[in-house]
């Protein structure tokens, strides 16, 4: 069965410091991985996906199949980055359809 | 587009009561999902639907039911509310590139 682990529940950094939110996964197939973000009082929204290899709001994430990781990084944190971040793995579920398996989330707090 | 909308935003139920959480999307997506989010536990899939008239169980379906009579609507029914169902419920649909679009959530408390 697939599993996504985010080992840190809370990550606190100062503005301008580098940020790395860790995500490890276990999955027997070829993984499709995502990062979702939830700002205060807002809905979850897609931040980035590994297949597009894009950078959103200065965040990047590289899939490392050897280490089964998909860590989210940003070189210089901003206060507006404070939010809950969820790593998610897409897999097949049941007879059809795709399902996202979420990690437990990491709360990022960026202090001024 | 309004995207994915959910009602109500908040609800308090007594043990044994029933209620329906409403979810609507206007993006003509076939795939829709219901998740629950418990503190520190991430989101878990309750039920999903691959199109009108087709639904199936997710990881944690016990105590819930769904229906999908139209492409737009995917209501979630709690028949006999229990304290273990206190959670935040998110509805989602899936679009191009497997991106899931989430509703704003319904915060349910069962006492």
Could you explain how this protein is built, in words?
- Chain A is mostly beta strands and 112 residues long.
- Chain A has a single domain (3-111), classed as Immunoglobulin-like.
- In chain A, 0% of the residues lie in helices and 46% in strands.
- In chain A, strands 2, 5, 6, 9, 10 and 11 form a six-stranded mixed beta sheet that branches. Chain A has a three-stranded antiparallel beta sheet with strand order 3-8-7, with no helix packed on it.
- The radius of gyration of chain A is 14 Å and the shape is globular.
- The mean pLDDT of chain A is 89.
- With 111 residues, chain B is mostly beta strands.
- Helices cover 0% and strands 50% of the residues of chain B.
- Chain B has strands spanning 4-7, 10-13, 19-25, 32-37, 43-51, 54-57, 64-66, 76-78, 87-94, 100-102, 106-110.
- In chain B, strands 2, 4, 5, 6, 9, 10 and 11 form a seven-stranded mixed beta sheet that branches.
- Classes of the chains: A mainly beta (112), B mainly beta (111).
- Chains A and B meet through strand 6 and strand 10 of A and strand 5 of B.
Topology:
The complex is a heterodimer of chains A (112) and B (111).
Chain A: E1 3-5, E2 10-14, E3 19-21, E4 24-26, E5 32-38, E6 45-49, E7 60-61, E8 72-74, E9 83-92, E10 98-102, E11 106-111
Chain B: E1 4-7, E2 10-13, E3 19-25, E4 32-37, E5 43-51, E6 54-57, E7 64-66, E8 76-78, E9 87-94, E10 100-102, E11 106-110
What is the structure about, briefly put?
Chain A is an all-beta fold and 112 residues long. Chain A has strands spanning 3-5, 10-14, 19-21, 24-26, 32-38, 45-49, 60-61, 72-74, 83-92, 98-102, 106-111.
What is the SS-derived class of chain B? mainly beta
Biggest β-sheet description of chain A:
6 strands, mixed
End-to-end separation of chain B in angstroms reads 36 Å
SSE order of chain B, one letter for each helix or strand: EEEEEEEEEEE
- Order of helical and strand elements of chain A: EEEEEEEEEEE
Calculate the mean pLDDT score of chain A and round it.
Answer: 89
What's the CATH topology name of chain A? Immunoglobulin-like
